[in-house]
């Protein structure tokens, strides 16, 4: 079976709708605790008007933009992002200490696990609770579907440039561990962050606080505040890097939900390693794993798969 074959196509699922409603209303109340029913109706209207074939992250983007318009708050999760980064920095220090004790093959597998457990630092799934640092460390003994680490190892040994699409703010701190391992293997690693705020995702405003510049060769913004990297609105620098990169590392469910669609994969025309925790049934089903599994999965556009 080729990388990426055998999955269930991930479109908007009926299960996605209550999740979108609950998370966006939670976003509204986070930014404006005294929100009115009229405020709720405005956000709900955006979701309702877009319930068709759009991928869930695109609808979530439109709804979060409405939250920002309704409340006048541009970064509702500022406090959560800051505390998440601080907690993750402590965990990153522990991870780097352990990394120094491992050989090259062990280091890559361990760094992938650290990057994956970072995807637990996410407010974007209804009912999902962000774990403590102790709980995160315990997740290293959780369910990992790591078959494609071998592909990542092979690609890294024969490549020059990897493009790394970051997700949540605290998670991005832990992605530094994997970036360091990839650089040790001879790769140049460039991180991509959001230009504007979406929930608790990392943006250009938090790069220095998270210390990303110490681990990535370069950090660039994607020119958007969308939940995922939308191919239609890539800025010129990112388009150039997509063309130059040997492969892409893509973090989180939102990027997976959008980029894994065959049309987008074909347009990007690059091998893409998706790293995420399958936090909801539709995503878990599409990947063929149990819910809450940590997954690294290689996808290629069909006409280039081998």
Automatic annotation (TrEMBL):
InterPro entries: ARMT-1-like_metal-bd_sf, ARMT1-like_metal-bd, PH1575-like. Transmembrane segments: none annotated. Gene3D superfamilies: Uncharacterised protein PF01937, DUF89, domain 2, Uncharacterised protein PF01937, DUF89, domain 3. Residues 14-293 form the Damage-control phosphatase ARMT1-like metal-binding domain. This is Damage-control phosphatase ARMT1-like metal-binding domain-containing protein.
């Amino acid at each position: 079976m080729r990388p990426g074959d055998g999955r269930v196509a991930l479109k908007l699922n009926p299960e996605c709708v209550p999740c979108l409603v609950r998370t966006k209303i939670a976003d509204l109340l986070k930014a404006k605790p005294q929100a009115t029913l009229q405020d709720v109706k405005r956000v709900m209207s955006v979701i309702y008007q877009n319930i068709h074939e759009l991928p869930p992250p695109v609808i979530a983007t439109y709804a979060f933009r409405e939250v920002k318009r309704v409340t006048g708050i541009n970064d509702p999760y500022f406090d959560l992002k800051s505390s998440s980064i601080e907690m993750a920095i402590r965990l990153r220090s522990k991870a780097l200490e352990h990394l120094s004790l491992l050989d090259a093959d062990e280091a890559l597998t361990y760094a992938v696990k650290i990057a994956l457990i970072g995807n637990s630092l996410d407010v974007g799934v209804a009912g999902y609770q962000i774990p403590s640092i102790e709980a995160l460390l315990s997740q290293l003994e959780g369910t990992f579907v790591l078959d494609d680490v071998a592909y990542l190892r092979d690609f890294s040994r024969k490549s020059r440039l990897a493009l790394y699409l970051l997700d949540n703010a605290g998670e991005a701190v832990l992605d530094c561990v994997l970036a360091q391992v990839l650089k040790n293997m001879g790769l140049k690693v460039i991180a991509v962050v959001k230009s504007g705020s979406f929930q608790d995702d990392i943006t250009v405003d938090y790069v220095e606080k998270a210390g990303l510049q110490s681990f990535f060769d370069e950090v660039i913004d994607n020119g958007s505040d969308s939940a995922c990297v939308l191919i239609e609105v890539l800025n010129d620098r990112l388009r150039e890097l997509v063309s130059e990169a040997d492969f892409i590392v893509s973090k989180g469910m939102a990027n997976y939900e959008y980029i894994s669609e065959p049309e987008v994969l074909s347009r990007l025309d690059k091998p893409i390693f998706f790293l995420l925790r399958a936090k909801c049934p539709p995503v878990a089903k599409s990947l063929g794993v149990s819910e809450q599994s940590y997954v690294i999965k290689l996808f290629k556009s069909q006409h280039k798969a081998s």
